[in-house]
Amino acid sequence: MTPKERIRKIFSREKPDRLACFSGMGNVTVEGLKKYDYAFYEIHLDAEKMANAACSSYELYGFECAVAPFDLGVEAEVLGAEMNFYTHKGKEDIVYPTVKKKAINEPEDLNVPEKIEEKGRVPLVLKALEIMQKRVGEEVPIATYILGPYTLAGQIMDLEKLLKMSFKNPDRINELLSQLTDFLAELGRIYQDAGIDYLTVREMGAPTDVLSPRMFKNLILPHLKELFLKLKEPTVLHICGDTNMIVELMWQSGATAISVEQKNDVAKTREKLGEEAIIFGNIDPYGTLVLGTPEDIRNAVKKAIVGGVSSVWPGCDIWPAVSKENMLTFVEAVKEFGKLQ
Predict the structure, then answer these.
(1) Cα-to-chain-centroid distance, residue 303
(2) Torsion angle defined by CA atoms of residues 45, 46, 49 and 50, in that order, rounded to the nearest 10 degrees
């Protein structure tokens, strides 16, 4: 069974030969950059380099997907934010692009452009996805991601103002999130129409470390429900941080699957959601994959599988500094412990 066949079965709740080892988020590594002699900043600005970097973790380790882009600025750029890509950095420097200038000062300042498929780096991402499909798409699922409405709001306006207004003036934030939901649904459909195999929505700004479960239910969840209703399956909802108190709400969002990180107690999440839920997680991408020993990685994979994940994947972007040995151990451990009877 190819990775693509395996992951299709997992999303459709059919029985695969084993659990998969894949992700819906960035998984480029320093070894992948060395393979093509790229600086980190280059893979955000060139479609072919982005595509090659996205395919490299499958080529080097057998990691079962190819996902692009690698940063969280594509949507914000379309809406008018200015990015810093740190193009002065050398090939050894791993610095992710950041928002240099926010797009709006007040929620009412938002102006969504027409023809977003032609704006910012969207054409570049679409070209990269096309190259990835030609390169490895016969065997490996091709995927991308969009931000969730609340996380995108934090990218385009001052984060402290967003948090304060979420408590003191939720009606204004609700209206902003409604507009961002429509924008993200349109962008997601553009990616889906380009032939990707699954789409992840990263609502990283909404864990209970930041917002209460009540706030998540009343302010965040309605917009996620609307977004997933407008997207085609399969989709994944990923939220970083502590999600133990909101996993039922995450599952109610309408996503095909949910993705949780290492702070989530997967065994309890499986107990709460039942056997029908598709749950991906929850390997610590830095503490375990980068800093851990091969034995630490094998133990973490075994724990996630015993806890009931539907497939094993990192709790966020794989940190590029991960060693080749640890990545190979990660993939092989899933093959060993993820066999199904």
Answers:
(1) 22
(2) 60
Q: What is the pLDDT of residue 341?
A: 64
Q: Are 248 and 273 in contact (CB under 8 A)?
A: yes
Mean pLDDT of 47-63: 98
SS3 assignment, position 282? strand
CB 225 within 8 A of CB 189: no
Higher-pLDDT residue of 341, 59: 59
Asked if omega into 107 is within 30° of 0 (cis), the reply is no
CA 211, CA 33: separation in Å to the nearest integer? 36
Please say if the pLDDT value at position 41 is more than 90: yes
β-strand pairing of 66-67 with 142-147: parallel
User: Could you tell me the pLDDT band of residue 204, with boundaries at 50, 70 and 90?
Assistant: confident
| Domain range annotation of the chain | 3-336
Average pLDDT, integer, range 269-286: 97
Q: Which two tokens stand for residue 70?
A: 């690698």
Give the end-to-end CA distance of the chain in Å, rounded to a whole number.
Answer: 15
Nearest residue to 267 via CA among 213, 312, 305: 305
Give the per-residue SS3 of 19-35: CCECCCCCCCCHHHHHH
What the block records as the tokens of 297 is: 């990685």
Helical H segments across 62-169, by residue range: 74-78, 122-136, 149-156, 159-168
Report whether CATH 3.20.20.210 matches the domain 3-336.
Answer: yes
Q: Is the pLDDT of residue 104 over 70?
A: yes
Mean pLDDT of the chain: 96
